[in-house]
Amino acid sequence: MSPSLWPLLRNPLGLLGLLLTLLVVLCALLAPTLAPYSPVEQNILARLSGPTSAHWLGTDQFGRDLFSRILFGFRNSLLVAFSSVLIAVWVGTLLGVSAAYVGGWYDRVVMRLMDVLLAFPIILLAIGIIAMLGPSQWNAALAIGIVYIPTFARLTRGPALVVRNTDYVQAAVAIGAGNRRIVLRHILPNLASVILVQTTLALSTAILVESSLAFLGLGTQPPNPSLGQMLSEGRAYLTLSPWTSVFSGLAILLASLGFNLLGDTLRDTLDPRLRGQ
Fold it and tell me: Is the peptide bond before 223 cis (omega within 30 degrees of 0)?
């Protein structure tokens, strides 16, 4: 039986992470409803204004409403983060579990390939991939997904090796169960908690990587809003109107912090060695 998740709600940091995550996800999903203006609508007469009743968080250098752009920035950032982590979870888990189950030369080749990818810094590898594919939102998602494949592959391989040698898996092999059934029914369910925790933590860092790529102009392209892009655009106007950089930076912080706190608490809750502490 899976452990109760009530400790998640009793832990102040876990509850804070859950609330921040829900807030960011709801803002992204309801952006068209909550945004008072179009994120690309310009008003030159109101450019670089501070927070007012008309523009709650002020406006940028083109007079675009910052509150509206941040809401849609959440949507674009989460879209890239979820897409990239989905790619990493799917491919990484497939490679890690198959390497553990098949073993032999296949295991060695897959793990050495993962070691090669892990040898590159995350941002540098993502920039290299985007340099070959071209800057865009979906290419950024693909690049981040490729970057995190080795993490999930190595994370799932170790527990899969342990589960493969358990008595019930050996019994399933003895009665003639197929490889697909063994992997789907006996191995993967035992890795669910590990994958869930790492997925939550990966979402936190994926948001930061996406913002970094957008900051460098390699992610979501203008005029579509992106939190990292807004942070970059606001640098030139810090002395005149710091609101663009300040509020976009706070939005990145809240989104990343929420998933990070949630992942840490899930790890402590689902790990039997830490559950009682």
Answer: yes
Closest CA to 206 of 84, 120, 90, 117: 84
Tokens 């295991």 belong to which residue?
Answer: 107
Distance of alpha carbon 52 from alpha carbon 50, whole angstroms: 6
Work out the mean pLDDT of the chain and round it to a whole number: 87
Q: Tell me the C-alpha distance between 75 and 85, whole Å.
A: 15
Residue 174 burial by Cβ neighbours in a 10 Å radius (0-12, 13-18, 19+): exposed
Give the pLDDT of residue 180. Answer: 76
How many CB atoms neighbour CB 231 within 10 A?
22
Helix (H) or strand (E) segment spanning residue 132? helix 122-133
Better pLDDT: 179 or 261: 261
Alpha-carbon span 228 to 45, nearest angstrom:
25
Stretch 62-86: mean pLDDT, rounded?
Answer: 93
Q: Which residues fall within 8 angstroms of residue 157, CB to CB, at 6 or more apart?
A: 96, 97, 99, 100, 107, 111
Predicted local confidence at residue 2, as pLDDT: 43
pLDDT, residue 208, reads 93
What span, in angstroms and rounded, lies between the C-alpha atoms of 246 and 126?
26
Question: Any idea how long the chain is?
Answer: 277
